[in-house]
Amino acid sequence: MQLEDDIVAKPNYFATMKNFALQLASEDWMILEFSQLGFIGKMFQAPDLNLIVEFIFMFYKEKPIDWLLDHILWVKVCNPEKDAKHCERQKSSLRVRFRPSLFQHVGLHSSLAGKIQKLTDKDFLKPLLHKIHVNPPAEVSTTLKVYQGHTLEKTYMGEDFFWAITPTAGDYILFKFDRPVSIERYLFRSGNQEHPGDKIENTTVEILPFSDTDLKTKDKYKKTEDHFYRIGQFEKGVAEAAVDPIFNPVVALRLTVLQDSAVWAILSETDWLRLTQLDSRDTAKSYKIPSGLALTNRDSGKRFSFCADRN
């Protein structure tokens, strides 16, 4: 764990960090961030320490350490033949941000000679309005009208809550996974402590299997015209259920609004218990989302984890 000598910490910060790390025990993370500032509050896994220390030792005179951390992630997971959005999605799977921040910077003097550093963490002491989970790499699109800067991209990366203005019938949120993934359970929770009435209702949960040949589900699940299966719906602001194994692996998950809503939408938690994620080499063909889903979206192609609010 990397700290500094000019910070203050929240009470019980160690227990909070330990519990968060244990929640992610099955995830392949490299850096957990408990502060948004510089090189403060960064947790690493022991097997990665030699690589990180050696990289920093080679270049610490050239750039600040927090910049070097980003370069390490780029070297590990970014493909020069892919675009910047793909790179950011890959890096975010290794770099997980905990909110609100557990540490606040109180020092003034920078390590750079003669420089005064008046930096403070705006997330310190803020109430937590969304619950963070590590979601599988995915692109997201939506027809919902997003309020101010509370975007789907920030939410999927665990940086903020998602906030949408009065959903209408036909609106949707679509998750297209980078690779087919087997999901055991899903959880979507709406509303939060500041706006408990902003719940999602009259909305279905739908999945698109990698292959739906010979699926004997006609009597139990409704199949949409674009080949999604309706497997659940929101009740009292929450959608939570197990996924029938016959659908796995899946290439996309969608929330579809069935009726106009009188309130705004807060989605404060998104979690999927996934079993495996297929490598592209494991699939015989590249699966494409049906062309009918290629709609004009306000937040197309962004990484997403659910949450929302009006504040």
Automatic annotation (TrEMBL):
Cofactor: a divalent metal cation
One Gene Ontology term of the molecular function aspect: metal ion binding
UniProt keyword list: Coiled coil, Glycoprotein, Glycosyltransferase, Golgi apparatus, Membrane, Metal-binding, Secreted, Signal-anchor, Transferase, Transmembrane, Transmembrane helix
EC number in record: 2.4.1.145
One GO cellular component term: Golgi stack
Localisation per UniProt entry: Golgi apparatus membrane; Secreted
Name of this protein: Alpha-1,3-mannosyl-glycoprotein 4-beta-N-acetylglucosaminyltransferase A
Species this chain originates from: Scleropages formosus
Taxon lineage: Eukaryota, Metazoa, Chordata, Craniata, Vertebrata
